[in-house]
Write a structure and sequence with these properties.
The complex is a heterotrimer. Chain A is an all-alpha fold. Chain A is built from 20 helices and two strands. In chain B, helix 1 packs antiparallel against helix 2. The chains are: A mainly alpha, B mainly alpha, C mainly alpha. Chains in contact: A-B, A-C, B-C.
Chain lengths: ~500, ~110, ~950
């Protein structure tokens, strides 16, 4: 029984509520959001320390007996997730501040609410409550998406909202079927009942479609690249660390508790993951602007993250978790570079750019380091993640899975080369410079944020061991969820 | 039986509408889909017992939990529909119509 | 500690050089050279020990779980390559110091990258962990990429090809490494070599051979991957000399030599390498003969020589492997010297074109001599080292595979190919020397190279000569390599004169034939022109472009503006799964009974749904929608859910009001979609409907009430004091759901606010019904929904009554039908009336009767209740009693319900206020906050990627 768990949800939600009341006081809003996010990070670290050994802390909200309460539970993965999402929110806030995107009176309240939804989705052990958490997260993202209400924001917003609304409806229908068949929404109860109950499975499959759509698994991925490129650049950074990652997180949770016991599912998971990798990377290769390339890579990377679920060995899942942690940072850094480029050069379209390595060497470094990591090149953290994944796949005799990852990383490299040659090499085409005038400190922040993350990604290669250990602890708890089940199950 | 048919009927109507042009009709479609979900939720509680679930209503009382779920779902989907309609409203301002489809927006 | 220092020193140097660059410019080459010289000296001291079979190792754990370590190992092979890397490195650095103009910005970048490359290359040849080897291997590719690309103005294409080709090989190496690790059970190279039998016996052995060959073939420019090497020649001469002649291209050969013991005896291994290497040697030499650009000539000559080395490794006898090692050394010396000479010529005359060169012997005597010596070594003319290694190579092939596992044919086939290649080598060597330094002077020297620029080449050429004269000293190296790699005794004494042997005769024949070819070039030109390598470059570019086009097509799939393109996949998935479920689910328990009213309701509902879906007019659609909503509410009543029914009715009313508000700004009729689309939509709808019906029928509601439901009914009152179990679930047991839900409402309200308040590219158009003025203190006319005194009077009476009722609903919720939502929605309805009728400016202007304050405050109240628990040491969202004034007590959760109540009111007001375009919610001050983002304004962004 840990009282911290609900606080991790309440803090950002409260920050959001107060932020709407004080929407003319930007400084206060920033402080509130930062405090709440920092609070989530602190709680996450604290809980991670508690559960690292494999035990699970829970909270029956309202302390109602007899399983009448909603159960929140934190295992190593959930704790890690709290740290991860709060960390990436901090990055996004920095970028938003540097670009001035957080000057919108609702940016901070919305960002805080988004975090609240993500946190709840990460800690809840109740299927219906998970639906609610998703909705909190999504409505906040809908608004952030269309925040500036330009033509393309509205257009993309409708597609984004429409697709996710359908997914949410399927989720709800699925929950209804599951409850109708099993009479419970407690994940632990479901993990024992569902695999053997076809009616419940039919319901759960609808839930899975919804989660897969939110995780942007091919062929349910289209909305992501279509919509993300039209959000504010800092908003894209925010989304990249949170939305699809929650989808992936829930897939890990469901896989660990339920899917692993469903016969004949594993090869399908591997296949979907492989297709997702390939389609995503091809879309990236075809991109013509930095964000367009990077957003499609999100799809591709989701494939990397989901493939371990088809193998479900400790090695594979550990590799997936390690990959997730380093990837969230790397992708945030790359999108931050794209955001910086838009601010400094007025565009992130390759055809508008050139010679940045000469004119803005630090921006170049800030891009190259995470780019190497994304392409899985040594000595970066990305390489370690790729190596662990490939080894795990081969060890699990998943030759095609491993081979696909290797091949896809070549195409990833190609897309990164495309950016390097297009934007950082050569000559900048003649065009009026619509770059925005930023104060020196904001400009430094804009380049400094990705630079710091990039250096971290570089360091995390040679110094990967501690994080690999952590990933193994997380994976062990997922592959054998008995502790989670024991802690969460209610009569 | 009737419950299942009603769920299907609402879902079908909603599906048809969300595939039409024009954000408003899409919003109407999601309203219907929402109805389908809530009715399914109630059906999931077992359509047999139909007494209002107050304390001491006895064995004939309906299952209260799905009702709570459904109520929450109704309100949530109202919030989302409202926002979608706001988008339609906005698109009228920036696009001149709530029909945002053009030919091949492919980038 | 020697090994880690040897790698770290140039690495650190590379990091520091840019800092020095500001002040010293190209001068930074000197410290770089000094560092490499130090490393070379330190390594040199190990030679005697290593030749006696001594081995130095150093290791630190890296990924303990995966058994990967930062392990280094110094043996004969590693030392040989390390010395080549460092010694040639020193000379290249000195050369670069003079090669670049004093003010050339490229100088510092190039030198720093060269130093980084040296570190990576030392990592390759010293690594004792196959993963570490891969890491260093990739680093050489990456540094090569940036060295070729320069500042990317002209080198981009060549750099891209080089990196992608070598990266392809790198990934092959990674896969091979993982497979080797699996087979040998360790990532240690020594361990893998020790586990040779297991490796060869593994089912994946063939795959390993192919992957390793692919890795080496790409790195060492073997056919058909040779094309990247000539393409890399856009790089400045120091880079070409160091990476693309002396060291990096030899990494592939190193890998093959290193792994030779593990694969020795696999016919696939020996056969592949001999054939690929021999072919590459012949084709490379052939093309080199036809080149007129000296750098291109040298590049293809390098390709040819690498082919020879690969073929030697393929033969796999101790003599062949040892000779390969020595020829690596010989080639590094003469080829580096040749590249430097070409650079000098280029530097002096401004051209590298044989047609425009000639007679430079007099102008550049030093370079001429050095180049001639080096070329003689390349052609295999005594007494240079190149002569000896070439002779031993021929000897090895003459001896044949012997008992060392290679198929018998490899000897003869290899010999034939190598002889042909050597003839070509002699020809182009002659051509280079005669064409450049003899004959009439075509292009005069306009830019005299300093002695310091010419010196390095001379040093290398001298070394090449000395190596030949004192070759006896190399015999122990040959023996050691043969023993380490070939697992046998070489038994050859290296000397210039073995007497008249078949080998010598072959050599003489080759020299003569080469001379003939060169002299008869005119007549043979037709034949020579036929010398074409399969143009990998064209193939590469075609693949590259095709990939980009494919990528474009993939993007197009997600580029549509239409929702169906995005709703299709999830709907299809759902239909599929529902069908699957309908087939798979076996019904259990008793089907839920249906009563007559259900069926009536069903029929009416069908009418309503048809109305919404089929009506062309917006009004018709709204009517249908209201009917459906009303019927659903009725259905809830039939199923004992009055709270639900009431909520449904009120939500429905609000939704309809909303839709009407939006419609007022839109045409009266819908845009009719294409017939095809309607058909597809109808089909999908039918599929979804039937599937869902089937699964619902089979899967749901057959076990009656769940245990959980029973428990709520049984314990709700005792635990919460509430009689309305549904309400207790909402505000007590599962208040967390409700908290999230009002969060959704509040955020949605904020979103509506943001969308309507944010200035668009085009200013907001007024609703068609009533013009509105967004100014601050105008005379406000409501939206004129309700006219006429009676109606107005009604609202005057009804609205306040509704407000009272709503409060009452809120209060009794815990016990009876009602609660925060229903109360809030009722209050909202009251607001609707007040809004539609006129004369309530003051109310609507008040500071607190506004959306965001209300939603924010309501959410705050609810959270306050939630947190009041932990603050008082209780649970989050606590239960319990609350004592009010006048001795009234209520459930503590009433506070929470009040929060809900307030949020809902705020939401309703927001919907009307903003969508209804009533009064501007805030002073203009608020608009400032709109898209006030200093970054790009909405429009700019909107236009951005969209077009």
């Amino acid at each position: 029984m840990s009282g911290l768990i609900p606080l991790a949800f309440a803090a950002p939600l409260l920050a959001g509520a107060l932020g709407t009341l004080l929407r003319e006081r930007r400084a206060v809003q920033r402080t509130l959001t930062l405090a709440a996010t920092g609070g989530v990070l602190a709680i996450g670290l604290r809980l991670l320390g508690e559960v690292r050994g494999g035990e699970v802390v829970t909270n029956d909200v309202g302390a109602w007996p007899d399983g009448l309460a909603i159960v929140l539970a934190v295992d190593p993965l959930a704790a890690l997730m709290l740290c991860l999402v709060s960390g990436s929110v901090l990055l996004a806030l920095a970028v938003a501040w540097a670009r001035g995107e957080d000057d919108h009176p609702l940016f901070h309240p919305l960002a805080a609410s988004l975090l609240a939804g993500v946190v709840l989705a990460s800690v809840t052990a109740d299927l219906f409550n998970l639906f609610v958490a998703f909705e909190v997260m999504l409505i906040a993202s809908y608004v952030l998406m269309a925040l500036r209400g330009g033509r393309e924001q509205v257009r993309a917003g409708v597609i984004y909202v429409g697709t996710n609304l359908l997914a949410s409806t399927l989720f709800l229908l699925g929950v209804g079927l599951v409850y109708g068949a099993t009479g419970t929404v407690n994940l632990a109860r479901l993990s024992t009942v569902v695999p053997g109950d076809r009616a419940a499975l039919a319901g759960l499959s609808l839930v899975l479609v919804a989660v897969a759509a939110k995780a942007a698994l091919v062929p349910l991925h289209g909305w992501l690249p279509r919509a993300y490129v039209h959000a504010g650049p800092a908003v894209t950074v925010l989304f990249s660390g949170l939305l699809t990652k929650v989808g992936v997180y829930v897939l890990y949770r469901l896989a660990s508790l339920i899917l692993v016991d469903v016969d004949g599912l594993a090869p399908w998971l591997v296949a979907v993951a492989a297709v997702t990798m390939v389609v995503g990377v091809l879309g990236a290769v075809g991109g013509k602007d930095m964000r367009g390339i990077l957003t499609y890579h999100m799809v591709s990377q989701v494939g990397y993250l989901v493939l371990p679920l088809g193998l479900m060995t400790v090695d594979a899942v550990a590799a997936g978790v390690f990959y997730l942690v380093q990837y969230v940072g790397v992708k945030a850094a790359l999108l931050a570079v794209a955001a910086a480029t838009r601010s400094l050069e007025g565009s992130d379209r390759l055809e508008d750019l050139g010679g940045l390595l000469r004119t803005r060497p630090w921006l170049g470094v800030a891009f190259l380091l995470p780019a190497l990591a994304l392409a899985g090149l040594p000595p970066t953290s990305g390489f370690v993640g790729k190596y662990l994944l490939v080894t795990a796949a081969f060890d699990a005799r998943s030759w095609w899975g491993g081979a696909t990852m290797v091949a896809v990383s070549l195409l990833t490299l190609l897309s990164m080369i495309k950016i390097v040659t297009g934007a950082f090499w050569g000559e900048r085409p003649e065009r009026p410079d619509p770059g925005h005038v930023l104060t020196a400190v904001r400009r430094r922040a804009l380049i400094g944020v990705p630079l710091v993350v990039g250096v971290a990604a570089l360091m995390l290669g040679p110094a990967a061991a501690p994080l690999v250990d952590l990933a193994r602890d997380v994976a062990t708890a997922l592959v054998d969820p008995s502790a989670y089940l024991a802690a969460v199950v209610r009569p | 039986m009737s419950a299942a048919v009603i769920v299907g009927l609402l879902a079908a109507g909603g599906t048809y509408l969300v595939l039409q042009r024009g954000v408003v009709r899409v919003a109407l479609g999601f309203t219907l889909l929402g109805h389908a979900a809530t009715t399914l939720m109630i059906a999931a509680g077992g359509a047999g017992a139909r007494r209002v679930p107050f304390a001491g209503a006895g064995p004939e009382a309906a299952d209260p939990l799905p009702q709570a779920f459904a109520l929450t779902a109704i309100v949530i989907s109202f919030g989302l529909t409202a926002f979608l309609l706001a988008l339609a409203f906005r698109s009228r301002d920036v696009h001149g119509s709530d029909d945002l489809e053009t030919d091949g927006g492919a980038r | 500690m020697l090994l880690p220092l040897a790698v770290a020193a140039p690495l650190v140097t590379a990091a520091l050089l840019p800092l020095l660059g500001r002040r010293f410019g190209r001068g930074v080459a000197l410290p770089a050279a000094a560092v490499l010289a130090g490393v070379a000296a330190a390594l040199g001291r190990e030679v005697p020990a290593v030749l006696d079979g001594g081995v130095t190792t150093w290791s630190r754990p890296w990924l303990p779980d995966a058994g990967v370590a930062l392990a280094l190992r110094l043996d004969a092979l590693g030392l040989l390559f390390a010395l080549v890397v460092t010694v040639v490195g020193v000379l290249v650095m000195l050369y670069a110091w003079r090669y670049f103009e004093a003010d050339d910005p490229a100088a510092v970048r190039t030198v720093a990258l060269l130093s980084l490359f040296a570190a990576a290359m030392l990592g390759v040849v010293l690594a004792d962990d196959v993963i570490l080897l891969f890491v260093a291997w990739e680093l050489t590719s990456i540094t090569s990429f940036f060295l070729i690309g320069g500042d990317g103005t002209k080198g981009a294409a060549g750099a891209r090809r080089a990196l992608l080709v070598t990266a392809l090989g790198g990934l092959a190496l990674l896969a091979a490494a993982v497979l080797l690790t699996q087979a040998a059970g360790t990532t240690s190279l020594a361990g893998i070599l020790a586990a040779g039998p297991e490796v060869r016996a593994a089912g994946t052995a063939a795959a390993m051979v192919v992957l390793v060959a692919l890795a080496a073939g790409t790195k060492s420019a073997q056919v058909p991957f040779q094309f990247w090497l000539p393409g890399a020649m856009v790089a400045p001469t120091p880079v070409s000399t160091y990476l693309h002649a002396a060291t990096m291209v030899k990494a592939g050969v190193y890998l093959l030599l290193r792994l030779a013991p593990a694969f020795q005896g696999l016919p696939l291994w020996h056969g592949t390498l001999v054939l690929v290497g021999g072919t590459t040697a012949v084709l490379g030499a052939w093309v080199a003969v036809t080149r007129r650009d000296l750098k291109a000539l040298m590049a293809y000559s390098t390709v040819s020589q690498l082919g020879l080395l690969v073929a030697l490794v393929g033969l796999g006898t101790p003599l062949a492997l040892g000779t390969a090692g020595l020829h690596v050394l010989a080639h590094a010396l003469f080829k580096a010297a040749l590249f430097m000479s070409v650079g000098v010529v280029d530097h002096a005359t401004g051209t590298r074109d044989l047609d425009r060169l000639g007679g430079l012997g007099r102008a550049l005597p030093g370079t001429a001599v050095a180049a001639a010596l080096a070329a003689a070594g390349m052609a295999g003319i005594p007494p240079l080292l190149g002569f000896i290694t070439k002779e031993e190579a021929l000897a090895a092939f003459l001896k044949g595979a012997g008992t060392y596992g290679a198929p018998a044919w490899t000897g003869d086939v290899g010999l034939t190919l190598i002889v042909v290649a050597s003839i070509g080598t002699v020809a182009y060597s002659l051509r280079f020397v005669l064409g450049t330094f003899t004959g009439p002077l075509r292009t005069p020297v306009h830019h005299r190279p300093g002695a310091l620029l010419e010196a390095p080449a001379a040093v290398l050429a001298a070394a090449s000569l000395a190596g030949g004269l004192l070759v006896g000293g190399l015999t122990p190296v040959l023996d050691r390599l043969g023993a380490d790699l070939g697992g046998g005794v070489v038994g050859v004494e290296l000397k210039l004169w073995h007497g008249v042997t078949p080998v010598l005769l072959t050599t003489l024949g080759v020299l003569a034939a080469g001379l003939v070819v060169e002299l008869a070039r005119g007549r043979l030109s037709g034949l020579l022109r036929a010398g074409r390598l399969p143009s990998g470059e064209a193939a590469f570019d075609a693949t590259y472009d095709a990939t980009l086009r494919l990528g474009g097509r993939v993007r197009a799939t997600s580029g549509s503006d239409g929702l169906p393109a995005f709703l299709g996949p999830p709907l299809a998935a759902a239909v599929g799964l529902l069908a699957l479920g309908a087939v798979a689910v076996a019904p259990v328990g008793t089907p839920p009974d249906s009563q007559a009213p259900d069926w009536v309701l069903l029929l009416l509902l069908a009418v309503g749904v048809l109305g919404v879906t089929q009506s062309r007019s917006r009004i018709g659609a709204v009517a249908g929608l209201s009917l459906v909503g009303f019927l659903v509410a009725g259905w809830f009543v039939l199923h004992g859910a009055p709270d639900l029914a009431l909520t449904q009715l009120l939500v429905e009313a609000l939704t309809v009001a909303l839709v009407v508000v939006v419609f007022r700004r839109l045409p009266d009729t819908f845009a009719a979609g294409a017939r095809v689309r309607r058909t597809v939509a109808a089909a999908t709808a039918a599929a979804v409907g039937t599937g869902l019906t089937a699964v619902t029928w089979l899967a749901v509601g057959r076990q009656g009430r769940s245990d959980l439901g029973d428990r709520y009914l049984a314990r709700a009152q005792e635990l919460t004091g509430g009689r309305n179990v549904v309400n207790t679930i909402l505000v007590d047991f599962r208040a967390l759901d409700t908290l999230g839900e009002i969060g959704v409402l509040a955020i949605a309200a904020a979103g509506i606010f943001a969308l309507i308040r944010t200035p668009a590219e085009r200013p907001l158009g007024p609703p068609r019904a009533t013009p509105i003025d967004r100014g601050g203190d105008l005379r406000w006319r409501g939206t004129g929904g309700i006219e006429g005194p009676i109606l107005r009077l009604m609202t005057e009476l009804v609205a306040p009554a509704l407000l009272v009722v709503s409060a009452w609903l809120l209060w009794r919720g815990h016990q009876d039908v009602g609660g925060g939502f229903i109360g809030g929605l009722a209050a909202g309805a009251a607001a609707v009336l007040l809004y539609l009728s006129q004369g309530h400016e003051r109310l609507w202007r008040s500071r607190w009767f506004r959306t965001l304050p209300l939603t924010g405050a309501g959410l705050g109240i609810a959270l306050g209740h939630a947190l009041s628990g932990p603050v008082t040491g209780g649970a989050f969202l606590p239960g319990g009693k609350l004592s009010l004034p006048f001795g009234v007590t209520a459930a503590r959760s009433l506070v929470f319900d009040v929060g809900v109540f307030v949020v809902v009111i705020g939401m309703v007001i927001g919907v009307l206020r903003h969508l209804g375009q009533g009064l501007p919610e805030d002073e203009p001050a608020d608009d400032r906050g709109g898209p006030g983002d200093r970054g790009d304004r909405g429009p700019a962004d909107g236009a951005e990627v969209g077009a």
